[in-house]
């Protein structure tokens, strides 16, 4: 039995040695990893002028994920040190991992996408965006879910992985565009002059960044000649500008006797007996 | 044979030792895991003011899942201790796990999504929501299935994984929007004054949070000039408000001789012989 | 050769011992698993008041699946005990499992979904449901396939995995909704009074759970003012109620001289020469 | 070298023993499996009254699959017995299996789906079905492909995996439905009486299982009041019944002076100068 | 060192023995497999009367695939015999196999589908088919790609895996269908007699397999009563038959004073002042 | 320590031997593989008359891929020879391989598809094709990307994996098709004679491969009888031919007094009081 | 215990030796890999004349990826050298890798696609492109995300993996296309002469690369004969050119008395009594 005792002692020593090595490795790797995460995040966000608060949020998230993974590896390795037949653990982990991998891939996708949306500042709270078929003001930006308030008051919860392609309408000046149809009988030059007068009146409007202008005959429609006016306005002012321009154009046309024609049709009448 | 006996004794001792270690590990890990789940859940839900009842539901669910996984690992490890050729078990588990992983991934997705819908309070029973092509009042919120009662009385059962993007119409004031067309012959200013009078009458209506207002010429249509009125109402009152406003506007227009025009067309008649 | 004999005897003993252990394990695990399944199923279905017959069906299914899996594991473990190079078995099982996993995932999905539809009582035989693009009366509920009889007599076989979102029209009162257009020249109040009279006549109809009511001006259409009537009827009576109400409204309008207008158009005639 | 010889002899003996065990195992498992397949198939099909010929087809298929799998396992295990480094075989099998698994998953899906379509008798040769966007008479039912003959003469080959949801129009009586519009000036009661007379004439027609009936005012359309007639006919007779009823209704309306109105429009004429 | 030499000799002998066994196994399995393939293919194609040329093509393909796989397994096993650490090979093969498995799954799918299209004779060169959104004459049938010539002259290359559901228009008689609208004022019986006369004239046309017949009132349209004529023609003659019938019907109607009506509308004129 | 030294020497010798074997294997396999690739490619392309330049491109690509794989295997096997715990390498490779496998599968698909498009000569630079929703002239054919120049001048870059189904409009004669509507009052035979005259004039046009012909009454439309003319033209000349034929037909009809009718409608006038 | 000491010493020596070998391998492989990357990138980009700045960006990216992978392999191999039960690490890595592999595959796809878009110069900052349903000027090109500014001012963030097929409108001359309808009564030759005059006036316009030309009768429409004019303009000038041409054509037609007709209809009047 002496041989066994020796063997056991030896094994115990080996286990102890390995455990100590593991703890040392953990104690070394843990803070190093945290510092690397911190450093990379700060250096990469500094260039993009992201607010300190947001950086802290991202940092906290990354360090949390890092810690969970490290602890998970550490625990499974301790199991291994005791030689407790790691095989079944692999089997279990494999099956469970497969189920989770399939079921939770949406969750991982949400967080990965959310992380980059935050990092790349694609949207901010309060901005007007269109994405994933939703349209409205961003109300909350989460790592998993983004909340967008539609203009009709609805609050939309959208998992971030569905934010494939974000149209942000709050980044710079917006275009005000008015298409206006005149009669085929009206003189195009005259109508364009009248419209240009209206445009000039609006060009002093401070909402316009780049004064509206008549750009020409957009189409020769079935009932009217369509003229187009384009201008650049301050953000979110484009709709009210368009409304005001439509009203002004209608009134200018009334004064100048230019007709906005109804749909036209030529009917060839053939009289028949009942 | 003495050597064999010794060997067997030794092996038996090893098995016993390992079993004891396993049970101790189980006895330690089990309550710790439960406490960690409890603590994380409570601390993360406290911030969001989720009702105690819902937290208990989530806690129960998480601890159940945790227990099943732990027991599964524990059982497979006991198999391992007896050295009962764990290989075939891995093979079996792999094949079965693959089949289950593919077939039941929907189930896991349902629960994962359901968990976050509950945790993030995206919808509550009794709220009016639009999601996954369904539209109605939430009647029951489950971890796997959500039940939505359509306004026509239909009860819809929707697996949670299909709730990709939830539009919740019961979170805050709603918009009442009325578009009204006036004749091209009518004076826009006059019509807007009449509409503004109607709006002012409604602004004292307690259903309106933000009194309705005429915002301008929404479009120069083919037959009419479209004016838009927008107001903010209490939740779920928007439709009745819109109906009442439409009636009031129609009556005000009748009194003021403003026409809501029918579709217009200009017909050029050419007489031909039969 | 004595050493070999001994070794073989020893090995044979080991095999025998392992086989006995395996059979004991099987004998213990088998009934325990069955009882757990039974117990869980009964306790979870008791709460939901599912008929005894259905519970037995589910129980039989679950115990069958459980038995097949257990036997499969048991057989592969016996192979392992004889040390018959379990490697190739793993390889074979892997390849076959992969093929089956991909090809039969639909089958597993069907059964998983079917199980929950039965368990959660989402549909019952005889109910009128809309799901997966099919619409009709449920004729048979299977674990793999659901049969729905369309109103035109067609029998639809639908694999359960396609039942993503089930609209059950047989759970509670249904809405009867009639939209009726009146002329822009008619007095809205008068028309609403006439309609209200019709509604009051129907409110004594026992098919109506909640008497129909005029709720107001639903829209100012291009040719008519649309009024909406809503009522709650007994299940499956909503269509006949709507038909009867339409007839009654038409007759009431005829008596009161209120017009249901044809499409309107204003035509500006310009005579031209041929 | 004597030691080696002994070792080799020993190994050879072991190999022989294992081979014998393998062959015995094969000889036992093979017929048992076949019998189990036979028994399960017969017992499960007996309940469903499936023709003997079809059962034999299914049985042959299942036993073929079973045999191929068994032989594959057997061969790989023999490789294993000779200790011919089974590792590379696993590697090869894995790579090839992966490629096949991905590429041929459609094939497996086809067979699995085809098997259940045969077993559950969802369609029979000669039935009129709609599935996978195809519409016609089933001409051949295969395990991999189903052939459907469209009414225009086209022969469609459809892989079974695309038969997701089968609408079988040859299982029971079919509905004959005729919607007929009458003028807003006509008396609804009168028109319904005339239609009821037509229906009564058809109720003696042996093609009708459940005599056609006028069920009421289906809609108040833009130009007409739509009445609906519904009846149950023998399978595949519904179209001719509908055609005959349309002709009879048209003639009855002509006799009774009831008009089937053309599209109506009210035109407000405003004369303008050219 | 003598022990080492012995060991090496022994190992060398083992390797030699294994190599010989491998070569023998290869020499046995290779021709057996080829014969099995040949036999299965011939027996399964004999029943279907597939031309000898096509069977040879399929046989060549299958034996090629079989040979490549066998050689691949053989080479990896030789590596294994030399005990050249087969682990890394597995790793490499796994990674490469994964990449190929994903990237080339389309290729495998193409060949698998192509194989069955050839084997089941779903299409032949020269047939008129509709599949995968393409419509035309099959010009070439490959294992990977099928070429279809559209009627406008375009040559379409379609990977076989997209041929999900093939509509073959060259298998049997085709339907000629003509819908013809008559006036609501015309007598239905009279019109049907005239049409029947036209049909009888065509029934002697040798292009018609089953003489065209008037089957009744297909619909009561908004402007006309639609009558339907159906006949069975020889393959690919259906269009010209329909064209000829349309011309004959138009001329017969002109002779019998039956009108094919233009779209009808009832206009209620209300005169208004400009 | 002498035993150790021996062991180490022995091991070193073993390693050396294995390395030499590896290098020899590499030196043998490398050129053989290259020659096989070359030979297969040349023999398979010779039959298809592919230009020498293109064959060289394909050959270079295939030999590059082959070399990278071989070197990768070789390096990992050297690692294995040194017994440097190949396990972690497998683990790393597995994780990285998984990530790459998923992320880069598009890349592999692109190259595989591109390879076959080149090999099968589905498209050539300068041809007019429709594929993946794009329409235009092929400007560059790459292994990963194909460039197509739309007729409006846009240059489209399309990853090859999206080229599922290629419609090549530059392979053979194209169809010129003109549908022309005549009045219901015109004589069909007369109109067809006039059209036939036009066709005969064009049949001498060298752009026509198969002279245009009147094929009959394509449809009895709501306002006109539609006649169809079909001809075969040289590639890319079909549009101009159609334009020229339309002009000629219009002029021939004018000369012969045949009318191309406007949309027709019968209006039943009912006068009402305002 | 002396034996143990020796063993430990021996093991320690082995570990040391392996570590040294590892570091040497790392020191050799690292710079070689970097150089290979550099060289391949430069040689492959040189041919395509990509700016030095962009090559540096790509090089930096590739070397970063390479370094991370190398360090990851290196660390896991060091773990292996200490024989710290690498099994659990594999298990952990497998599970985590699976989750990441699924969740982050989008990320890898983005980078791979982004890399090739940069390398192949498919788009440049400032170009006008249509891709993934977005349309506008490229504002920023990232490895993960591309920013496109729509013409209405919206800034769109699009993950690169969605850039499947890029339509680049800034590569070469663009087509200006004007379709113009003339009356059926007008002489086609006369109208084409007038249009040709307009075209000739524009052919001296420097915006036109290839002077506009009348190409013929595009269609015989329901109300007009449509003539088509096509020209090639400088990039981005096509819209303004089209607008100017429309204006000029309208004025030329007015001068020459050619009518752009309104929609035409023939109405057969039948008077009925109210």
UniProtKB/TrEMBL annotation, chains A, B, C, D, E, F, G:
Keyword Protein biosynthesis set for record: no
Coiled coil: none
Residue ranges of domain Mechanosensitive ion channel MscS C-terminal in the record: 178-260
Annotated Mechanosensitive ion channel transmembrane helices 2/3 domain residues: 65-105
Spans traversing the lipid bilayer: 12-29, 61-82, 94-119
Keywords, ordered alphabetically: Cell membrane, Membrane, Transmembrane, Transmembrane helix
Pfam families (UniProt xref): MS_channel_1st (PF21088), MS_channel_2nd (PF00924), MS_channel_3rd (PF21082)
Oxidoreductase is among the record's keywords: no
Protein name from the UniProt record: MscS family protein YkuT
